[in-house]
Amino acid sequence: MRIPTSIFSISGLLLFAALSFAATGSQAAPDMGAAEAYEASQAGKVRLIDIRTPQEWRQTGVAPGAGRVDFYRGPEVLVQSVLQMVGGDKNAPIVLICRTGNRTGVAQKYLQSIGFTHVYNVSEGMAGSAAGPGWLKRGLPVESCAQC
After folding, report:
1. 124 within domain boundaries
2. Is 139 left (phi over 0), alpha (psi -120 to 50) or beta?
3. pLDDT digits over 48-96, tens only?
4. Which residues form the domain of 82?
């Protein structure tokens, strides 16, 4: 019997819980709106990083020039990928985006807890949340990610 996979798998939920626990007590940097993140990214002021899953990237596309790392691959992969994207500089300004801002809030606090100093969260995400309509509903550009 084949067990269906999901972005909300048990292992993914356990990882989310572990990162949440590890980040408890960390102070989060301010959030950044989707339009502000797009403008700052295009101006080269921040490194935009999409932490959704490959399935999500294929479904909606990704922001132009955004780095990609699947949050559910674990904290080691997250940290190593982010460090590679910023040339090893934990002081480089980065902006994290996910579907609705939940994963990015956890990842933001975790990265800050291990020494990253300028980590911002697009709390409205790609799909929207209580924080705002989201990247897609704002009509911000996306690039196809068929090979993700």
Report:
1. yes
2. left
3. 999 999 999 999 999 999 999 999 999 999 999 999 999 999 999 999 9
4. 28-137
